[in-house]
Amino acid sequence: MKQKAKLAQEQAVQEGTHHGKKSSHRRKISRGGKKVIVVAAVAAAVCLAFVFVEKRSYHSYKVLNTSEQEDVVSTQYVEMDGDILRYSPDGVSVVDASMNTVWNETYTMQNPIADVNGSRAVVADSEGTSLYICDKKGVTGTVTTSYSIVKVRIAANGMVAAILDNDENTWINFYNPDGSLAAENLTKIDDPGYPLDVAVSDNGVMMVTFQYVDGSKTTSYVAFYNYGDVGQNEDDRIVSGYTYENVVIPQVECINESQYIALRDDGFSTYQGNQIPKESKTVNVKQEIVSTFFDEDRIGLVFKNNNKDDLYTMEVYNMSGQLKFRKNFNVPYTTIKMSGGNIVMYNSSQICVMNSRGVQKYMGSVDGTIRDFFKIGWNKYLMVLDTGVSTIKFS
To answer: For residue 112, is the peptide bond before it cis, meaning its omega torsion is within 30 degrees of 0?
Structure first.
């Protein structure tokens, strides 16, 4: 009897233990299932929020702050890594989104031009000889050139390329962030042509578009100079070059250390390569291009329409040359550009903002005459009017 009772007790213990293990397993499954449900719910909420933000359009705007003391007639403004570069014939400064001055430097220029790349900027006197290199903390270097400045561009690391002209020849000079001369190149109208534009990357590669007349043909030549070890044994340090007959290439851009674009009068070409860039894609169009815009992800072309209801058509491509979307629109713009990932259009009294997929976010008129408009943060824009400068948000 005792033996039977002992066996029954052991069996009950084993059944209880087995039951406990099953219950624990069920609890684990229950907790795991709840976790999956929570993760799925969060993911669904994020997707819904993204769709809402993506599709949402605004119908008005709110002025966050206004600075009416600005000399908007002679002053230019450029977004600079969350702050604003402000420059005029009298000086250059960096201000925050509330127009509070971070630093300023005075100079005298007749016709200042500027280029900004991330947290670096260069300001130069067009057709003059003064050049200022700066970052968000202040001026890092100054240059007095030997010849008239035609164009300047800056890399994200502060290296500067400048096209100079003395009426007989042109030079393309390369400067360090402190203003010291890194290299200079003499170019002639017959070889390799007149330089129309220049772009420069962080790794010492400079892209130049030249134009020359070969008989009755207008020919463009895109050259890549390498000022590192790879280019030291090449003639004039040109590591690759491409010739295009009956094509005008007025603008070239460095997107990053291994990606470049040439904006042509018949489309665009892209190039890839860290040290020796090679042509990767050319997109040709038959319509006349009236405007172009771009950022690090998109290239946009605008054509005129004969349709009175839709004045223009835009085509937007990715950097691989794939058409992302085509859109007809009826905005009588005078300026179109990419700003903070958005497509921004405006004229003297109207503003239109689309996202990078062509969804219209805002369209409306403003009080005053618009001189400039660009994005400075999430749903925050700087609007330069003839009466002052305002920071606004759409609502």
So the answer is: no
Whole-angstrom distance, CA of residue 131 vs CA of residue 317: 35
pLDDT tens per residue across span 352-383: 999 999 999 999 999 889 999 999 999 999 99
Cβ contacts of residue 46 below 8 Å, gap of 6+?
Answer: none
Determine the average pLDDT of the residues in 57-77: 88
Residues 6+ apart with CB under 8 A from 260: 199, 201, 207, 224, 252, 253, 254, 270, 271, 272, 277
Angstrom distance (rounded) from CA 369 to CA 347:
9
CB burial of residue 182 (10 Å; 0-12, 13-18, 19+)? middle
Cα–Cα distance, 167 to 162 (Å, whole number): 16
Neighbouring C-beta atoms of residue 140, cutoff 10 Å: 17
The pLDDT score that the predictor gives to residue 89 is: 97
Beta bridge partners of 161: 153, 174
Dist. CA 13–CA 311, nearest whole Å: 85
Report whether pLDDT(17) > 60: no
Tell me if residue 106 falls in helix, strand or coil: strand
- The pTM of the full predicted model, rounded to 2 decimals, is 0.83
Across residues 103-124, what is the average pLDDT?
97
Coil/strand/helix, residue 31:
helix
Q: Using alpha carbons only, give the angle 262, 354, 295 rounded to the nearest 5 degrees.
A: 25
Q: Give CA–CA dist 395/385, Å, rounded.
A: 20
